[in-house]
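ok here's the first one, seq then struct tokens
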Amino acid sequence: MAGRGKAQGKTSTTHRKAEAGSRMRVVSKEPIHEQILPHIRRDIVLNRWAPDERLPEMELCEEFGVSRTPLRDVLKILEVEGLVTLVPHIGAIVTPLDPPDLAEKLEVMSGLEQMSARKVAEWQPPPAIREIERLHKAMAGAAKNGQTSKYYSLNDEFHRAIVLGCDNNTLAKMHETIMWHVSRARNYANEREPLTKSAAEHHDAIVERILAGDPDGAARAMREHLNEVTHTVLARISKEPDSRFGSAMTGSAA
């Protein structure tokens, strides 16, 4: 009986060690603030937290099960990225959508995506071409079915696929950083604009010129498309009341 008890104890210990080892494989080794940063950034980009809104620190600490220290590390990074402003005795305030600043970012994004479209059309990398075609088809389906959130998520993936097709890490990082701001404004504008069934057709010329191996045509199609996007987004953002997008804390005009 004693031997049996020892055997059972050994089996139980072995089982616990195996279970703990299994958990260790799924627990991230990244610092806590790096684990929660993408989630909070994404919430800002998706307008869960609106421009000029204060981020509720206690609520976020509870949501992610963290103390204030890693959360404040996240907020410092978001301030460097230009997505929040840290105001003494108040906390983190989501930055306003400032039309002149946004126009500059849209112009830079357009330049990066024109360059990307040109290179992908010239090089024809098979994985990128397949992904571009897949996303274009999926966007058409989402637009046809009136799936607004899905459509605009696929839209971001579509443009990102063209950029990643260049296999240029510097370009990709620059594009990712500026897209946080552009996507936030575009998501805000798109929430207030109806999604038409022909929305995906705006990308037809881009895809057509890329598949045809026409670098100049692909760059031109991308420029024309993004000119339209820029006009639509800025027109919508500029209509918002100054009290919402002209916060005194940022020094914008009232």
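and now the second one, same deal
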Amino acid sequence: MKLGQWIGLIALVLSLYILWQLREVLLLIFAAVVLATTLNRLARSFQSLGMKRGLAVFLSVSIFFAGVIGFFWLIVPPFTQQFQELTLRVPQGFERINTWVDEQRTQIPEQLVPFIPDLNGLIAEAQPLFNRVLGNSFAFVSGSLVIVLNILLVLVLTGMFLANPNAYRKVFVRLFPSFYRRRVEGILSQCEISLERWVTGAFIAVCVVGLMSMVGLSILGVKAALALGVLAGFMNLIPNLGPTMSVVPAMAIALLDSPWKPILVLILYFFIQQTESNFITPVVMAHQVSLLPAVTLVSQLFFVTFFGFLGLFLALPLTVVAKIWVEEVLVKDVLDQWVCNHQQDTEFLMLVESPDINDIQELEVTQKDEDS
């Protein structure tokens, strides 16, 4: 390798290392870009009605904050009340089970008594685990503080991007060579359209899943059905894993009424997710974004491994954007062009082996036109 090639390789390795060290910051910036893209589309919708840009942005941001405040207002109070009741009833349930087990000990053969579990012993063994959880409360609070600071950073960046999106877009485009900037503009436009389509499809799926969950839980008589429905719809933004996480609090609250009701809740959520994955998502997302299910799952595992929960939450929009850049840059601009050039070289060698002066001149003229 020549000196210039070695310098280019070292610069590439150093750039990748710096990007890897800044991966969490870059992920927060991407979250702000997704949020700004969503609000910018809403603002453009208001502008199409005749509003000025400033008023449209203000109204879009106001709707967003009203939605966030409404979400926590619906979720936090009912869950706090229900889970406080749950912490009281679960020990009572253990005591009832333990009393029943003690009564059964007197009615079974002595040979089977050692095989009956001792709940008091199990609780005593689990006590160190509870103490460890309580001992890590300070770490949880400090981690929550970091989460709050990250959210504030995302919101501030979103406001900056919304104020003047074209300026930041031009800065990003200027990072590329001049001959490739128009191409980057087109790729960014495709990314923006795909993100807007994903947001639209995800919003429809969230509303449908949340409404179905709320209605089903209300029919079953589960407490806090509205809050659980909103939570189920929100968690549906995380494919595959989100629905599994949303069913846990619903089953826990259903346990307050009767021991069999959590089973019905599990069946209800299974039916809703089957309906969503087999009917809602194919119909809604067919005209929005096209991603293979295996690609979605692998992207989730990859991003949650390297970026944590935020990577899991942003796995789908990250995959949508990465898919566009890979198709446009790697496939179309590199691999497809390499195949074309390779075919032209092969045709030229074939002509050299069996020369025909007219064909050679025609091929040379074609290559000069493509180079120019």
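notes on #2: The first helix runs from residue 3 to 21. Confidence is low (pLDDT under 50) at residues 133-142.
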